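Propose amino acids for all 158 sites.
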C-alpha cells in the first residue's frame, strides 16, 4: 500500500505512472503505463558500456528526477538498473524509475530502519544501520554511473 500511495502522489515524466489498482483478495494488481524498452540492466548487457555522453544524458535525467522525488519527501532506496525502465528500444536516455516497493516518505524513516535495497547498489549507511535520508539514492545513482561507464576504452567517443 505504501508503494501505491507514493506512486499516486508522484507525477514526473521519468517516474512510471500508476493508472489503476485491483484488489482481488489474496492478490493485488498495479497497472502502470507501458514502457517498451526493457530494463536498463538488459541494455547495459547488450551494449557492454555507455559512452560518456550517453551516460551523462541518462544520469542528468535521473538526477532531475531524484531532485523532484526528494523535494516531494520521497526516498526510493532501491535504485538499480533493473528498476530503471527504458521507454523505447531507440533511446538509451529516456528512462522511467519503477519499483517503489522499498520507497518511503522521508518523514517516516526510523532511526534504525531495517536494511533494504540491492547489496551492490545500496549505500553504506543502510548496511551499517545508521540513520539516513535521501542521500542513499545519490549513492546508488553513483554506482549506476560507474556501471554505465565501467568498460570504457580509450578509443570511445566522448
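Proposal:
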Amino acid at each position: 500500500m505504501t508503494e501505491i500511495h507514493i506512486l499516486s502522489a508522484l507525477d514526473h515524466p521519468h517516474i512510471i505512472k500508476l493508472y489503476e489498482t485491483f484488489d482481488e483478495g489474496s492478490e493485488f494488481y498495479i497497472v502502470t503505463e507501458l514502457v517498451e524498452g526493457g530494463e536498463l540492466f538488459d541494455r547495459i548487457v547488450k551494449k557492454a558500456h555507455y559512452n560518456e555522453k550517453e551516460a551523462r544524458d541518462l544520469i542528468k535525467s535521473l538526477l532531475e528526477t531524484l531532485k523532484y522525488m526528494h523535494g516531494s519527501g520521497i526516498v526510493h532506496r532501491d535504485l538499480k538498473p533493473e528498476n530503471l525502465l527504458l521507454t523505447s528500444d531507440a533511446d538509451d536516455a529516456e528512462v522511467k524509475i519503477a519499483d517503489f516497493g522499498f520507497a518511503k516518505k522521508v518523514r517516516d524513516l526510523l532511526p534504525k530502519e531495517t536494511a533494504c535495497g540491492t547489496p551492490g547498489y545500496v549505500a553504506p549507511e543502510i548496511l551499517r544501520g545508521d540513520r539516513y535520508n535521501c542521500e542513499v539514492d545519490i549513492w546508488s545513482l553513483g554506482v549506476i554511473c560507474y556501471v554505465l561507464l565501467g568498460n570504457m576504452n580509450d578509443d570511445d567517443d566522448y
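Confidence is low (pLDDT under 50) at residues 154-158. The chain has five helices and seven strands.
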